[in-house]
Amino acid sequence: MPTFSAPDGTQLAYRVIGEGDPLVCIPGGPTDSAYLGDLGGLSAYRQLILLDLRGTGRSAIPDDTSSYRCDRLVDDVEALRKHLGLPRMDLLGHSAGTNIAAQYAAAYPERVSKLALIGPSPRAVGVAITGETRRELAQLRENEPWFPEAFAALQAITEGTGSDWEAVAPFFWGRWDATAQQHHTAGQPRNQEAVAHFAADGAFTPERTRAALTTCEAPVLLLTGEFDLNSPPVSAARFAEVFPDATLVVQPGAGHYPWFDDADWFVATTAAFLRG
Known about the structure:
single chain; alpha/beta; Rossmann fold; 8-stranded mixed β-sheet; 10 helices
């Protein structure tokens, strides 16, 4: 697994899958990139450069825990671009990784050719997702056998009386079968210190990021699932409004991992965007 040095000397690792023009991929979590797999077969069209965020996967644990902060991780992405020798790059982020990708595009707009935000988390641009929005979206799944228990847990979380996130996991998948459950378990963040510091004070400066992104000339794809409780379509639409050249796509029947729920649909849509 190749490595490179971050600006603070931390050794970071990445995986390379496929051939063709490179697509740098930033996972969510914060966690390592293994749960992304090959993004449902997108590697047949592009060479995927999948970064393990610092302190996850094969990447080293930094000496300074404040470097886990979202805005600080932007420097790691820029170091990877330089390491790869890319004057500009196509960039894909998933979930929390879209906050890193968006802040990167705000800081280095001239370095981004295309930007794909999958299951976009809009925290970096100050778009709030209300408990009511999540509950309304969750009710689309009321005919699922797991719905009553999962919805009760969600209601408690959104009302501030509960914290059983494991119980609401089924809402993040288009289908909650054995394979989805295995993927869910494998993709859980293991470095809780990285999770705790990701959104620390100063990690997000929404007004400044929004202002910078209004001048971003790169085409942007925001792709979310119809049932994505983490990134509801209505919130992704508000995120899309920040960019001058954005396309919002809602994948039917998908949750927070659209390449998993319908790989062919996801790959065809994303590859078409990347081809321009």
